[in-house]
Amino acid sequence: MNFDLSDEQKMLGEQARSLLADMSSFDRLRTLIDSGAEWDEPLWRALADMGFLGAAIPEEHGGLGLGALDLGVIMEALGAANAAVPFMSSIILGAEAIRLAGSEAQKAAWLPKLASGEAVATFAYTEGPGPVFATGASLAGGRLSGSKSPVADAGIADIAVVLVAGGSFALVELDQPGVTRTKLDSFDQLRPHYRLDFAGAVAEAMLGAGKLDRLIDHAAVLAAFEAVGASEACLRMARDYAMERQMFGRPLAGYQAIKHKLADVAVATELARSNAYYGGWAAESSPDDLPAAAAAARLSGIKCFELAARENLQVHGGIGYTFEANCHFYYRRERMLAVHLGNRGFWADRLLDAQRGSQAKAA
Amino acid sequence: MDFNDSSEEAAFRSQARDWLAAHAPAHELTPGEKISDTEEADRGRAWMRALYEGGWSGLTFPKALGGRGLSGAEAVIFAEEEGKYHLPKGPFTSIGTGMALPVIAKHGTDAQRARFIEATLKGDLTWCQLFSEPAAGSDLAALRTKAVRADDGSGDWIVNGQKVWSSWAHLTDWGILVVRTDPTLPKHKGLTFFVVDMKTPGIETRPIRQISGASEFNETFLTDVRIPDANRIGAEGEGWACCMTVLMGERLGSGAHRSGIGPLLDYAAATPDGHGGTMLDDRAVRQQLAEALAEEQGERFFQARLRTMVSKGENPGALAGMVKLAYAGRYQKTNGLALELRGLAGIAPEAGDTATGDVQYDYIYSTVMRIAGGADEVLRNQIAERVLGMPGEVRMDKDVPFETLKG
Q1: In the list A115, A158, B161, B238, which could disulfide-bond A62, CB 3.0-4.6 Å?
Q2: Which of A263, A300, A303 sits opposite B380 (nearest CB)?
Q3: Domain tally for chain A?
Q4: Which residue of B has its CA nearest to A267?
Q5: Is the pTM higher than 0.90?
Q6: Residue A270 is nearest to which of B290, B297, B302, comparing CB atoms?
Q7: Angle between helices B321-341 and B354-371 (to 10 degrees)
Q8: Do the bridges between strand A193-205 and strand A168-173 make them parallel or antiparallel, or are there none, so unpaired?
Q9: Strand A179-183 vs strand A193-205: parallel, antiparallel, or unpaired?
Q10: What are the structural domain ranges in chain B?
Q11: Where are the alpha helices (DSSP H) in B211-282?
Q12: Which of A137, A179, A192, A140 has its CA nearest to residue A162?
C-alpha cells in the first residue's frame, strides 16, 4: 500500500496553486462580481496554456491523458481559490460525458477544443425542483425540445450535453435560433446559472445511454476534491485571523471554543480528503468500488465544507459579514456545491444502495 | 497511489493468513458464551503463548529485544487478519505489549529488559496500568500517590495512594505505576515510574461497579507498598517522560474498533417501520446512517494515509488523534440513533432480541470511548495546537512547586 499522491501529482497541485495565487486573488473575485462578469476568462486561458484543461482528455484528442487523481489536485486548488471558471461544467462533466458517450466524430470535433479552451461545454441535467437528474427534455429526429434549468455556465458555453428522455445524452450547440438562454439570479455570484429552452434545436444523439452513473460518480469524487480544497482554505483563513485578532488581552486562537471548533473542521476535512483520495484511486484502478467510494466522498465533502464555510465566517465575527472580507465567497459557493449533482439525500441513497448491494454480493 | 498490498505485503499477509487459519480457531471465543474474567484472561495468555511460539509476537519490537523488527505496515496487516477471528484479546494482553514493553525497552535497564520482555511476549506476565487517580485523569500529572525512600537504608520505596480505572488489575501479574517522589518540584518534574508485582502486600484492588453492569475496571489502593529500587524504570524524576512513551502507545492503539455502521444498517433493516417497510427506508434514518458510513469509510482511508506516512518515516503526531475523536463521537451518536429505531422495544426488548442488547451495550460503552485514551476535549486541544499551530492552554500550575497547588 502507498496511499498518498505521487510526487508528480503533488507538483501538479503546486503549479495550480501558484497560478491561482498569481491570477485569482480575492480582489480579483470582487472585481469580477462588481463588473458582472460571467467568468474569469484570462484565468481560463492560462489554465488552458498550462495544460490543466486537457489533463484528463486522451492524448489522441489533444489532452495529456492523465487520471482522476490528477484532476483531483487541480480541483482542490480551484476550490481553495474559489476560482470563477467553468472547470466542473466544461471539463469534469462536459468533456467527460463526450469521452464516455460521444461518437468518434463528436470526440474528434469537441475534445481538442475543450482541451485547448477554444470551446466551453456544460452539462444540463436538472429541470427545476424535483428529480435532480430529470428527463423531461427529449430528442427526436435530431431536434431537441424541452427545458433545462438551472444550468451552470450556460452563458459562456458553446455546447451543452443535455440529459434527455430515456436517460441518454444529446449534444447541442447553444448558439442557434432554437435555443433560448435566460440568465437567472445566482446565489453563487461567481457561478452564473441559466435557464435553457430548446424549441426544436438542432442536436445530436450521443452513444451509450446508461453512462450517467459513471459520469456523476466520477464528478462526485472531483466535487469532493473541490470541497476539500475550499474547506482547507476556510480553515487556514479562520486560523490566521484568530491568531492575529486579540480578545480580552490574548489571541482569539487561544480560546478553547475557537480551538475546538477549528479542530472539528480539520477532522472533517481530513476524513473527506481521505474519501476523495480513495474515490480517485477507485475511479482509476478499481471501478467496482467507485459507486460507494464516490457517494462517501461526496457526502463527506458536503459535510466538511458546510462546517468550514460557516465557522470561518463565525470566527471572523462582524468583519466576516462585509464584502471586503473574504468569507462570503466560500459561504455562497458552499451552498451551490452542496446541491449541484444531487444533494446529500440523493448521495445518501446512492451510498446505502451501493453498500447494501455489496453486502448482499459478499453474503 | 495504490490502496492494495505491495507484493511483499501480499506475501506477508498470506503467511499470516495461513498461520492464523491453522492456529487461531482453537483459541476463538464463542460469541454469546459467558466465561469468567479469570478464564478469559487465562485464554488470553494461551493465545499470547501461541503467538510467541509461532513467531508472531512483538512484530514491531526490535530484534535485539526479542521482537521481529518489522514495520508498522506489517503489524497492521497482521492485526487485520487476526481481527477476523474472535480471539481472547483485551487490556490484559495489550497493556503489556503496547505500554509496559515500550517503556521498559526505552527507559529500562538491561536487567529489566531481560526480566520482563520475553516473559510478557510469551504471555507469562500480564499487566495493568496504574496511572489515573480520582483527581488526576486528563490532567495526569496532577497525581498524588507518593513514594518515599524506606528509612531502613534498603533503597526500597514505600508507596501510598489510590489509583483508578486500572483495567483488569485484579487478574494481572504486574502493574506499570507512576507516582510522585518529589512534591517540592513542579508537577511534571517530581514523578517517577515503577513496575510493581500486583501480589505485593498493601495492594488492594476493588472492582468498580460500572454503568454497563460489568466491572472490568478497578480502584487500586496502595498502602505502604514496598517496591525495590530495582523496579524503578528510568531515573528519579523521569516519570513523565516514561508516561509519554506509554501514552503514545495508547493513542496509536486506540484506533481498534469493535463495531461499525454495517451491523446498524442490518439492525435498521430488521426493524419494521409499521408501514410494511423497514426503518432502513426511513428518510431521516437513511440520512444519518449514510453520513456515518461515509465518515467511517473516510476514517478507514485516513488510517491508510497515516500508515503510508509512517512507512515513509514521517510522524503523524496529533493527526493520529483524529481517528479516535471521530470514531468515539460517531459510535455514541449512531448507537443512540439505533436505540430509537424500535421505540420502547429498544429500551425493553423481548427475550432473545440479542441485537438490541448489543446496541444498548455499545451505547453505554461509547461513553468510555469518548473519555479513555485521550478525552474528546484533550484530542481537540492537541489537534488545534499541534496540527493547526494554535496557542496552548493557559496553565497556572506549570512552574510552581506541586505542594503549593490547591488540590
Answers
A1: A115
A2: A263
A3: 3
A4: B322
A5: yes
A6: B302
A7: 150
A8: antiparallel
A9: antiparallel
A10: 7-89, 128-237, 254-387
A11: 239-253, 261-269
A12: A137
Question: Which residue of A lies nearest to B323 if distances are taken between CA atoms?
Answer: A267
Cβ separation A3–B1 shorter than 8 A: yes
The set of long-range contacts for B6-11, using a CB threshold of 8 Å and a minimum separation of 24, is B6/A1, B6/A2, B9/A1, B9/B73, B9/B74, B9/B77
Q: Is B128-237 assigned to CATH 2.40.110.10?
A: yes
Stretch B9-38: mean pLDDT, rounded? Answer: 93
Distance CA A245, CA B226 (A): 54
A107 plus A77 within the same structural domain: yes
Measured between CB atoms, does A126 come within 8 Å of chain B? no
Judged by CB atoms closer than 8 Å, whether chains meet at A352 and B325 is answered as: no
Q: How far is CA A58 from the centre of its chain?
A: 20
Of residues B1, B73, B380, nearest to A6 (C-beta): B1
The three cell numbers of residue B191 are: 514523578
Compute the distance between CA of residue A320 and CA of residue A334 in angstroms, rounded to an integer. Answer: 15
How many CA atoms lie within 13 Å of B211's alpha carbon, on the beta-carbon side?
9
Series of mean pLDDT values for 10-residue runs along chain A (363 residues): 95 98 98 97 98 97 97 98 98 98 98 98 97 97 98 98 96 98 97 98 92 97 98 98 97 98 98 98 96 98 98 98 98 98 97 83 49
Superfamily of domain B254-387: Butyryl-CoA Dehydrogenase, subunit A, domain 3 (1.20.140.10)
Q: How many helices (H) and strands (E) does chain B have?
A: 13, 8
Query: Is the same domain home to A200 and A242?
Result: no
- Residue B10 touches partner A, C-beta closer than 8 Å: no
Answer whether A260 sits within 8 Å of B394, measured CB to CB. no
Contact yes or no for B388 and A266 at CB 8 A: yes
Q: How far is B305 from chain A (nearest CA, A)?
A: 5
Residue B255 in this model has a pLDDT that exceeds 70 = no
Q: Which of A253, A275, A351 sits opposite B391 (nearest CB)?
A: A253
Q: Does A266 touch chain B (CB under 8 A)?
A: yes
In a domain, A2, yes or no: no
Final residue of a domain: which of A205, A227, A242?
Answer: A205
The CATH number of whichever domain residue A134 belongs to comes to 2.40.110.10
Question: In this complex, do A239 and B262 lie within 8 Å of one another by their Cβ atoms?
Answer: no
